[in-house]
Design goal:
By secondary structure, the protein is of the alpha/beta class. The chain is 41% helix and 15% strand. It folds into 3 domains: 152 residues, 3-Layer(aba) Sandwich (Rossmann fold), CATH 3.40.50; 216 residues, tm_1862 like domain (pyruvate-formate lyase- activating enzyme), CATH 3.80.30; 40 residues, no CATH class. α1 links the parallel β1 and β2. Bound molecules: cobalamin (B12) and iron/sulfur cluster.
């Protein structure tokens, strides 16, 4: 019998939302593993893949008489989270204890003062603290309040995520499935648009042995394909090297994607061993084509020269690298925006081979980020935005409803126009078109896909798989 229901929220109510079904809700898989260790029997409902309404979730709770439900919510999903919270409170009254954790409350610590429908709030890591609170609730105690999650000192000490509670085969990225892994928690940097709970600046690492043990257990799941969700995979070089050496020694044919890598943390020795150990692709945040904006505003002290040199190092192997750019930084000029949009094509013209995909995203101010504070100070986001969002004053859809940040004097239309030009310049290069035609002729199943992409690029100015405009 289930005693704790863990619900991953979604920004689409009663239907499967775009863009969340790439990975399971790992935070909840981790929580469930810790709860189990203390004898509890959790169940996970992921609203990202289940089109459930309040009534559907209420039925699950009623059927098994579950006393405690915990919601995981990012800020993007907080309106729908509250729709569920209020609906369940109405149906079960005080007989149900409702908890909230995840990125929104971690960046809005007084949330429960405004929303007393929730009994328990947990800021930051939930593994230790929520397990203790759940034991107290199931023991019959009435627990209320916002608690700061105890930081796990060593990530090796917590159990592996309980993936058996979420059907891994239903999570796909570009048609492929990867066993999800997290080698680190936290990031020491402070990029202007990044939404981080204050305590997540402290980075914690799993040991190579611990990661390899989880990989061995997960080997059969997706034929040795693994996907890391780390934000800065190469942060501690000696760990990466030990991990790659372990993988090579294991000798299995594995293929993995390294999540995010910072371009100021590219060491040729590390890159060589990563390739040898089966790493084939990852993601880098270039953020802007303007060195001034990158250094002064974004907070990434990386020069254009360093970016080029890092890409050159990556080109030692045929990696596939996706570069991400953010459009619309405070004080950014039209010229600087144009520099960003044409930066990927410039890298290609300089002979960079490994850059295979480019993403331009409009800047979105998120609670916990410096951009959020700036946008509020400049009056671009109202002080009570979150409460209005919860009231659905900005609509149901996060992607079209949540405000973007446009620098003073630059219109939305101008940003979208430059973005479209940037994509065209990058993707409509003869070299790129020929490489796609070669691929399509070798495997005609790609032909239709490429035609769709081409039309989307011409009509909307972005890829069909892009979540945002
Ligand atoms: C993987 C990922 C995704 C995946 C989605 C995976 C999924 N199934 O949800 C994809 C690629 C689809 C994605 C998309 C987006 N993402 Co994203 N993503 C991440 C990433 C890299 C990892 C999440 C993760 O697994 N963390 C690891 C686990 C262990 O941590 P955790 O989830 O925080 O869980 C712990 C605690 O929070 C707590 N906890 C969590 N839930 C609960 C519940 C209860 C009851 C309790 C008590 C505790 C608790 O305990 C857990 C264990 O300690 C994070 C950054 C990061 N490193 O966390 C960004 C992050 C969550 N994403 C973010 C954003 C902005 C987005 C997008 C909006 C980007 C965009 N503009 O398109 C979209 C929209 C997604 C959405 N649904 O809202 C922001 C959210 C900021 C915010 N304030 O909400 C983050 C924090 C990145 C950032 N730093 O800005 N994302
Ligand atoms: S954008 Fe990446 S590097 Fe910058 S603070 Fe966020 S996680 Fe760290």
């Amino acid at each position: 019998m289930t005693d704790v229901l863990l619900v991953n929220s979604s920004f689409a109510y009663g239907k499967v939302g775009r863009g969340i079904q790439f990975y399971p809700p790992i935070g909840l898989n981790y929580l469930a593993a810790s709860l189990r260790l203390k004898g509890m029997t959790p169940k996970i409902v992921d609203l990202g893949i289940e089109p459930f309404t309040v009534e559907d979730v209420a039925e699950i709770i009623a059927k098994e008489n579950i006393p405690l439900v915990g919601f995981s919510s990012n800020s993007t999903q907080i309106h729908n989270t509250m729709r569920f919270v209020c609906g369940l409170r109405e149906r079960f009254g005080k007989n149900l204890t409702i908890a909230l954790g995840g990125f929104h409350i971690s960046n809005d610590p007084t949330f429960l003062e405004r929303y007393p429908q929730i009994d328990i709030g947990v800021i930051g890591d939930g593994d230790i603290t929520f397990t203790q609170l759940a034991q107290r609730v199931l023991g019959g105690e009435k627990v209320r309040g916002t608690f700061t999650g105890e930081m796990i000192p060593s990530l090796d000490d917590i159990p592996f995520p309980a993936y058996d509670l979420t059907p891994l085969e239903r999570y796909k990225q570009a048609g492929l499935q990867y066993y999800p892994l997290l080698g680190t928690r936290g990031c020491p940097f402070n990029c202007v648009f990044c939404s981080r709970a204050p305590m997540s600046r402290k980075v914690r690492f799993r040991s190579a042995e611990n990661l390899l043990e989880e990989m061995k257990r997960g080997y059969d799941v997706f034929e040795g394909r693994y996907g890391f969700l780390d934000e800065s995979f190469t942060l501690r070089e000696k760990n990466v090297i030990a991990f790659c050496e372990g993988l090579i020694k294991w000798g299995k044919p594995v293929r993995w994607t390294a999540g995010g890598i910072r371009l100021d943390q590219i060491n040729p020795d590390v890159i060589d061993i990563m390739w040898k150990a089966g790493c084939r692709d990852f993601f880098v945040g270039v953020e802007t084509g303007s060195e001034r904006v990158r250094k002064e505003i974004v907070g990434k002290r990386i020069s254009d020269k360093q970016i080029f040199e890092s890409f050159k190092i990556l080109d030692r192997h045929p990696f596939e690298v996706e570069a991400s750019f953010v459009l619309g930084h405070p004080t950014e000029t039209e010229e600087e925006l144009a520099q960003t949009c044409f930066f990927p094509a410039k890298l290609k013209s300089m002979g960079i081979k490994c850059l295979t995909q480019v993403g331009f995203k409009l800047a979105v101010p998120m609670p916990g980020s410096r951009l959020w504070t700036i946008a509020k100070r400049e009056g671009k986001i109202p002080e009570d935005f979150i409460d209005r969002y919860i009231n659905f004053e900005y609509g149901e859809d996060f992607f079209s409803g949540w405000p973007k940040y446009y620098p003073d004097g630059i219109s939305k239309e101008k940003v979208l126009e430059l973005k479209k030009k940037g994509y065209m310049k990058y993707y409509l290069r003869p070299g790129y078109i020929f490489s796609r035609i070669r691929r399509d002729l070798a495997n005609p199943k790609y032909l239709l896909e490429d035609l769709r992409e081409f039309i989307s690029m011409l009509r909307k100015g972005h890829s069909t798989v892009s979540l945002t405009e």
